[in-house]
């Protein structure tokens, strides 16, 4: 879970920065702390950075091992889809529209980034809803596991709009 | 030419958000894509934006990208040729 | 007939080649693709790129859908197609069932946000906030659910160009778990300056009519529209005296895990999605009657998709075509629109033409179908939808074999 510049694992704070630190600075500091080995991180939008970091924090601690790539899936949701980046891209159109920014004007790119990083090739689903409906996400995850579509899932909520953000990510295995 | 290449390196680092690369780390003839600097197709599009923004050069055909953007030297050559053509 | 079957009862489409399913089929029959100079969207790129707009203004769409004209075109298109889909299923009063609406879109109410910003940038005091309130992708679905009287289950999916195929997968799972009786699933997207501009910076827009799976292809044309299918579970189908279009027998989604926008050269994500969907349907390559390609017309997509098809089907590639050569790429709506075409192909024995094809791709051993035909024996149809973020989906529709 990532909230108010604090990163939690299993409900324990494992790393934090002052609450008044800006989101970009927080993200950079967290990257330096938890990785420092993935330069493509800097090109991502805030949504992808948040999702990528949360996945990193979980999987470094307890990797998904013994699964074929197509057996690991992702089920995520948020409220604002990619609106945060949409507006930034909008702003860039006035000047020189940036292709690198446009790429991130889709909410599911965060799942693409996590899949690329960890080589996951299983099913992906991205929902948008007003609030985090844990029942929906967990129910769907259970169903994917039950159906045998995948054997392990990262699932949860990755939301960012301006300076407000919240990440809740779970690791579920059969 | 040397100046142009130095400027280009700084602009590339800035435009492509290469936070862990210093301009001087980029060799004049180092391949920018794949094994060299490791740029990808979106970076190539950003380089096209860079040429338009800083050098007023429009590249309409992205297929020319690999040739022009092979290395910092090939970009500098391309810019120089373009500027002389327009003199 | 296993108890887990999902039946397709009907479908609705609005896109650049027709305001309903019947009009779309007429356009295929008459070989009339929908590319034209833009008429309803205003953009500086007006004369550079042909687009495939729905040939109706917002007021007309509002009248058809029963929604107010000031709301997003994305919602208006959605309501028109979802309504047609519901009516074609002939289920009567929607309130008599537990109905779910699963709808996909990628742009949300971006058209309204653009208008708001245009005004806002000129004058900070102007611009109606009401226009931006419905921006979020989720609120588009809520608006349409309200208009149709759907209260039971409403979800919005946003996974780029494969969104609405994923909406259909999700809908099928709702039925299989008996969470609802009936599902309307698909997607919608309106053409916006935002997407036009973005695809332009990616340099994958063709300045002429797009040429999917042609060796001379240079990119895609953007389109707009909406498409939905109506599905019921086996238990419900048994109770009713209905004549379904076909069954949804297979679906799968895989991530290419290669690049944000580019497909991997071997099309591994495409391959996995197709292979797993066919496995679920319980059919082999020789059983496939037709594939509705993702076929955007970009160099990268068509090569990856073609390579994956060749790997899966070997020398026995079934008839294939990209209906995007008629409708343009309708992004979040494409999987829904093409699912309707695919399901209808099973019902009517249609094979759809691939327009603007003249040069065989040198990397491939097969080429698409170029003429419309009907009355073909069509047992299984696969519809492919692949999107940015590496998101790849395939659906299989099958005839009931009695």
Automatic annotation (TrEMBL), chain B:
Domain Carrier stretches: 2-83
InterPro entries linked to this entry: ACP-like_sf, PP-bd_ACP
Matches recorded under Pfam families: PP-binding
PROSITE patterns per record: CARRIER
Extent of the signal sequence: none
Name the UniProt record assigns to this protein: Acyl carrier protein
Automatic annotation (TrEMBL), chain C:
Keywords: Transferase
Domain Ketosynthase family 3 (KS3): from-to ranges: 1-399
Gene Ontology molecular functions: 3-oxoacyl-[acyl-carrier-protein] synthase activity
TM helices/strands, residue ranges: none
Record's signal peptide: none
BP terms from Gene Ontology: fatty acid biosynthetic process
InterPro entries, per database record: Beta-ketoacyl_synthase, Ketoacyl_synth_C, Ketoacyl_synth_N, PKS_Beta-ketoAc_synthase_dom, Thiolase-like
Protein name: Beta-ketoacyl-[acyl-carrier-protein] synthase family protein
Gene Ontology cellular-component terms listed: cytosol
Family to which this protein belongs: Belongs to the thiolase-like superfamily. Beta-ketoacyl-ACP synthases family.
Coiled-coil segments on the chain, per record: none
Pfam families linked: ketoacyl-synt (PF00109), Ketoacyl-synt_C (PF02801)
């Amino acid at each position: 879970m990532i909230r108010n510049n604090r990163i939690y694992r299993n409900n324990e704070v494992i790393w934090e920065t002052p609450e008044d630190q800006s989101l970009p600075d927080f993200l950079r500091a967290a990257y330096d702390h938890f990785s420092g080995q993935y330069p493509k991180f800097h090109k991502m939008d805030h949504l992808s950075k948040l999702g990528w970091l949360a996945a990193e924090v979980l999987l470094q601690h307890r990797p998904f091992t013994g699964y074929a790539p197509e057996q690991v899936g992702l089920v995520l949701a948020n409220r604002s889809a990619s609106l945060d980046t949409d507006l930034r891209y909008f702003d860039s159109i006035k000047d020189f529209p940036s292709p690198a920014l446009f790429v991130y004007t889709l909410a599911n790119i965060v799942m693409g980034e996590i899949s690329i990083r960890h080589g996951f090739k299983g099913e992906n689903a991205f929902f948008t809803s007003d609030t985090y409906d844990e029942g929906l996400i967990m129910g769907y995850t259970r169903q994917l596991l039950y159906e045998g579509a995948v054997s392990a899932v990262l699932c949860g909520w990755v939301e960012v709009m301006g300076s407000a953000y919240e990440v809740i990510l779970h690791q579920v295995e059969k | 030419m040397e100046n142009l290449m130095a400027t280009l390196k700084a602009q590339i680092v800035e435009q492509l958000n290469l936070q862990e690369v210093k301009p001087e780390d980029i060799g004049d003839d180092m391949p920018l894509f794949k094994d060299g600097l490791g740029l990808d197709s979106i970076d190539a599009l950003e380089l096209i934006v860079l040429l338009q923004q800083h050098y007023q050069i429009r590249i309409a055909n992205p297929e020319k990208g690999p040739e022009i953007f092979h290395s910092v030297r090939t970009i500098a050559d391309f810019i120089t040729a373009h500027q002389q053509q327009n003199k | 007939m296993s108890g887990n079957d999902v039946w397709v009862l009907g479908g609705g489409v609005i896109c650049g080649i027709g305001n309903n399913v019947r009009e779309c089929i007429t356009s295929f029959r008459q070989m009339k693709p929908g590319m034209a100079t833009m008429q309803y969207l205003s953009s500086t790129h007006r004369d550079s790129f042909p687009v495939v707009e729905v040939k109706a203004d917002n007021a007309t769409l509002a009248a058809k859908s029963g929604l107010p004209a000031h709301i997003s075109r994305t919602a208006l298109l959605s309501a028109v197609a979802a309504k047609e889909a519901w009516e074609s299923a002939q289920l009567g009063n929607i309130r008599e069932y537990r109905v779910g609406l699963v709808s996909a879109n990628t742009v949300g109410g971006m058209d309204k946000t653009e208008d708001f910003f245009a005004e806002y940038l000129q004058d900070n005091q102007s611009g109606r906030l009401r226009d931006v309130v419905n921006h979020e992708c989720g609120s588009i679905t809520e608006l349409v659910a309200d208009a149709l009287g759907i209260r039971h289950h409403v979800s919005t999916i946003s996974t780029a160009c494969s969104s609405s195929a994923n909406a259909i997968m999700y809908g099928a799972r709702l039925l299989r778990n008996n969470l609802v009786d009936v599902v309307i699933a698909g997607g919608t997207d309106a053409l916006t300056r935002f997407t036009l501009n973005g695809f332009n910076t990616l340099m994958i827009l063709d300045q002429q009519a797009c040429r999917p799976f042609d060796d001379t292809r240079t990119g895609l044309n953007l389109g707009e529209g909406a498409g939905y299918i109506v599905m019921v579970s086996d238990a419900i189908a048994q109770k009713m005296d209905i004549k379904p279009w076909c069954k949804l027998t297979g679906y799968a989604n895989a991530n290419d895990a290669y690049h944000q926008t580019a497909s991997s050269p071997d099309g591994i994500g495409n391959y996995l999605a197709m292979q797993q969907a066919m496995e679920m349907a319980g059919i082999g390559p020789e059983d496939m009657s037709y594939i509705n390609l993702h076929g955007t017309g970009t160099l990268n997509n068509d090569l990856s998709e073609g390579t994956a098809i060749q790997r899966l089907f070997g020398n026995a590639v079934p008839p294939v075509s990209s209906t995007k050569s008629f409708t343009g790429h309708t992004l979040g709506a494409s999987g829904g629109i093409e699912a309707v075409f695919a399901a209808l192909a099973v019902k009517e024995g249609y094979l759809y033409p691939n327009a603007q094809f003249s040069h065989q791709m040198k990397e491939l051993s097969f080429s698409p179908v170029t003429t419309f035909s009907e009355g073909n024996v069509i047992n299984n149809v696969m519809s492919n939808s692949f999107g940015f973020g590496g998101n790849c989906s395939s659906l299989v529709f099958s005839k009931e074999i009695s």
